[in-house]
Design a protein that fits this description.
Blueprint: E1 8-10, E2 13-15, E3 22-26, H1 34-47, E4 51-55, H2 59-71, E5 76-79, H3 84-92, E6 97-99, H4 108-120, E7 125-130, H5 136-142, H6 147-163, E8 169-174, H7 178-191, E9 197-198, H8 206-222, E10 228-230, H9 237-250, E11 257-262, H10 273-284, E12 292-298, H11 304-309, E13 313-318, E14 321-326, E15 329-335, H12 339-352
Parallel strand pairs: 3-4, 3-10, 4-5, 5-6, 6-7, 7-8, 9-10, 11-12, 12-13
Antiparallel strand pairs: 1-2, 13-14, 14-15
Length: about 350
């Protein structure tokens, strides 16, 4: 059962409560470069991203946020460290949320100014604690970035906001170590009902980052913990969205879109299965479906027909030819080079309904 949390609102997206678990990413462009940043956000939107975060390292970046927001559709979160003036300008530019740790922006007057501005237009603040940036006093107390240290840091920042009667809060406690990340979120989940943003920070390359994120985020989601997620990968942020959506889909949490299943291959393989899978994956990535569609791509003449028949759509083949299945029934025999086009045509028919 999913953990019960209070609900917050980021633009048009609800987080927590009974709202669907959302997928986030972060732009990797220079925020001052408005055309490049807008282009990347639109690519993320097309991939299915629900919320996007933008780095705000200086005032020029902060002043670019309004124009960027006007050109995109999904909610924008400004990611700010230390400088309260950047937070105030981001709020003035109309962002939908802040990622800022109030204990790191200076005097009480500065904290109060940011909290008041956020409260006035009712935008939430994410407390974002990372294992690589814990406060010196907490590191001294715990000796290393343990799960308990991450949780203590998060609660320290939360108390600052609560003392100012601000509770429109979301929390993340990310670590590069998967087991530390899992335990830190479990501690937070036991002690508060604020919604949680899940992620393994600096997870790494496409291969290792996907594995670490799937294990860390997936474990917590399977336990009912988590309200929004971000997969952190070195590379194209669109891949972060695809992996995040696939994690949700694999757990049955996001039941819409195309799910591809394919066999691993063996000595019976008589078709270029990898080529088929890669081509289909590339062509279906931006097909938006409001319902689930299971698509099987199989290259085994022994088990392929039966397994393809279990999917909504499927192709199976070998020796230069193949078969197209729909809802368990063979609907067409084809040449190998015709299989992908025929399958995509059937998928697009479903998408157009």
């Amino acid at each position: 059962m999913r953990r019960k949390t209070r609900e917050i609102t980021l633009g048009s997206v609800k987080i927590g409560g009974s709202a669907p678990i959302s997928v986030q990413s972060m732009t990797k462009t220079d925020t001052q470069d408005i055309p490049a940043t807008v282009k990347q956000i639109k690519e993320l939107e097309m991939a299915g991203c629900d919320i996007v975060r933008l780095a705000v390292p200086d005032m020029d970046a902060a002043k670019s946020l309004g124009e960027i927001k006007r050109q995109v559709n999904i909610p924008i979160i400004s990611d700010i460290h230390f400088d309260y003036r950047l937070a105030l300008e981001a709020i003035n530019q109309g962002v939908d949320g802040l990622r800022i740790n109030p204990g790191n922006i200076g005097s009480n007057d500065r904290i109060k100014a940011v909290v008041k501005a956020a409260k006035d237009i009712r935008i939430p603040i994410r407390i974002g604690v990372n294992s690589g940036s814990l406060e010196k006093e907490i590191m001294k107390e715990y000796g290393s970035p343990t799960a308990e240290a991450l949780a203590e840091s998060a609660f320290k920042h939360v108390r600052i906001l609560e003392d100012l009667d601000f509770r429109d809060i979301k929390i993340s406690v990310k670590s590069t170590d998967v087991m530390t990340m899992i335990e830190a979120y479990r501690i937070i989940a036991e002690k508060t009902d604020y919604p949680l943003h899940l992620g393994v920070t600096e997870a790494g390359t496409m291969k290792m980052g996907t594995i670490k994120s799937a294990v860390g985020i997936g474990t917590l989601l399977a336990d009912g913990i988590g309200d929004t997620i971000r997969v952190s990968l070195t590379g194209d942020p669109v891949e972060e969205v695809h992996v995040g959506i696939d994690i949700l889909r694999s757990l049955g949490i996001r039941q819409k879109g195309v799910e591809i299943i394919s066999c691993p291959g063996c000595g019976r393989l008589e078709i270029d299965l990898m080529k088929l899978v890669d081509e289909v994956e590339g062509r279906v990535r931006n097909i938006q479906l409001d319902k689930p569609l299971k698509v099987a791509i199989l290259g085994c003449v022994v088990n392929g027909p039966g397994e393809a028949a279990e999917a909504d759509l499927g192709i199976a083949g070998g020796r230069g030819k193949g078969m197209l299945y729909k809802e368990g029934k063979l609907i067409k025999s084809l040449k190998e080079e015709e299989l992908v086009d025929a399958l995509i045509e059937e998928i697009e028919k479903v998408a157009d309904k």
